[in-house]
Each structure stands twice: as C-alpha cells, then as structure tokens.
Specification:
DUF8129 domain-containing protein, 5 helices, LipDrop-assoc, DUF8129, mainly alpha, 60% helix
C-alpha cells in the first residue's frame, strides 16, 4: 500500500487536533478569566520591578551630583520634642517635675504594662478605678506616649468618672 501524500496526512492531523481542542474548550473557557487576570498581574509586577530598578539606578547616579544634607528637614530627634502634659500636671517648665516623670516606674497594680498590646490593656481596664487609670495615663505620657493608648485611657477615665446614668463604653 502506497502512503498518502504528505499534505493529506497533515490536513488529517490538523482536523483531529482541532477536534481535540474543541472538546477541551469548555474546560479552558472556565479558567480563562483567572488566567487573564493572573497574567495581567504578573505583567504589572514586572513593570513595577523595572520601574523600581530604574529609580534605584537613577538615585545612584544623581546622589553623586548633589551634596549630602547634614540634617534633613524631615528629621526629628527625641531631644527636640516638647513633652506632653495633662491639665493636672505641673507645666513643662518645671525641671524637677520632668525628672520625676522620667524616672517613674511601671505602676505596681499592672507590672507587665509595657508588654501589653492595646487589646490586652483594654481587657484589664475594666478592673481599674479612676486613680489607677490616671496613674497609667501619666506613665504612658511620660514614656511611650502612644496615641492609641493615651486615647483609650482618656476615654476610660471619662467613662469611670461619668455619673451612673451617663456612662459610655470605651
């Protein structure tokens, strides 16, 4: 038997391949949106990487052209900051009061205070009276002065100090 011409064999192979691909099409269409999104995100990441690399190279080149600032405008240092005081504290111009605040120790009723997260502290505040809360607030302001802790302590002090009928939750 004589083999069929090459063109006929290629045409038959193409027809079978087209049929196989047509049968796989429904499965491929289901994953198509995910594939397109994935490829678009990869392309975006590659572009971002190239832009970043170019910026770094540009910084390297330009850094040699500009003199280095001794102290950038945006830099702040701890010794430049003014201390935060509450209305019950002595004004900041009293150096003795500042020294007492600086050496204040963690309140005895909450010795692990510095290691507590804000959620852990919130859970313990319900067991403290107004005087203990004020002591914690003074300690926080004298040391870390973290805005979220100061705010929560202030709200809890207002709640504890409020008359029974006007209580709010912290």
């Amino acid at each position: 038997m004589k083999p069929l011409p090459l063109g006929v064999r290629i045409a038959a192979g193409l027809a079978v391949t087209a049929l196989e691909q047509a049968r796989k099409l429904p499965q491929q269409l289901a994953g198509l949106p995910l594939t397109v999104v994935s490829e678009a995100m990869q392309l975006s990441m590659r572009v971002q990487q190239h832009v970043t690399e170019l910026a770094i190279k540009g910084d390297d080149v330009l850094s040699g052209l500009r003199p280095v600032e001794d102290e950038p405008e945006w830099a702040t240092f701890d010794d430049e900051e003014t201390p935060v005081t509450t209305s019950q504290e002595t004004p900041a111009d009293d150096p003795w009061e500042e020294e007492v605040r600086a050496i204040a120790e963690v309140p005895e009723f909450l010795p692990m205070y510095d290691e507590l997260s804000i959620a852990q502290l919130r859970a313990r505040l319900r067991n403290l009276d107004a005087e203990q809360l004020e002591e914690l607030l003074r300690y926080e302001k004298a040391h870390e002065s973290r805005p979220e802790f100061v705010g929560m302590l202030n709200r809890r002090i207002r709640t504890v100090s409020a008359p029974e009928g006007g209580q709010t939750q912290s």
